[in-house]
Amino acid sequence: MATAAKKTTKKAAAEAAAEPKLRIRVRAYEHKILDLSVKQIMDTANRFDAKIVGPVPLPTEIKRWTVNRSTFVHKDAREQFEMRIHKRLIDILSPNAKVIEALTNLNLPSGVTIDVKMV
After folding, report:
1. For residues 95 and 86, is the Cβ–Cβ distance under 8 A?
2. Helices 97-104 and 31-47: crossing angle, nearest 10°?
3. Could you say which of 1, 60, 76, 79 has the lowest number of CB atoms within 10 Å?
4. What is the CATH number of the domain that holds 58?
């Protein structure tokens, strides 16, 4: 019985992998603008009855720098800076031409970067 269940799950996984999907990675420095952009993308996809998986929050990328405050002698006086890049992942399963066209014509705020891949 267990082997039959494994075979059906492998078949289901193979069928899911064969179906085309759009993978959208959204990146921004501010999480509020990022969430608004993701909501706008999902509303656009829902308008055309597309099946959506996500948004999946990806790990926040943190870049840190330590800089001397003075130029020469005072080594103990330092300043630390960091830059956070928030990321989300959205999958649109079996997208049609209308969904792709609507997403390309989408007007998103500045500071939001989108990577779209057909997987």
Report:
1. no
2. 150
3. 1
4. 3.30.70.600
Radius of gyration, CA atoms only, the chain: 21
Question: 106 Cβ partners below 8 Å, 6+ apart?
Answer: 40, 41, 44
What's the first-to-final CA gap in the chain, in angstroms?
33
33 assigned to some structural domain: yes
Range of the domain at 33: 20-118
Assess if residue 46 is contained within a domain: yes
Taking only the tens place, the pLDDT of each residue in 67-110 is: 999 888 888 899 999 999 999 999 999 888 888 888 888 899 99
Q: Which residue, among 79, 59, 82, has the nearest Cα to 71 in the 3D structure? A: 79
Q: Is 92 left (phi over 0), alpha (psi -120 to 50) or beta?
A: beta
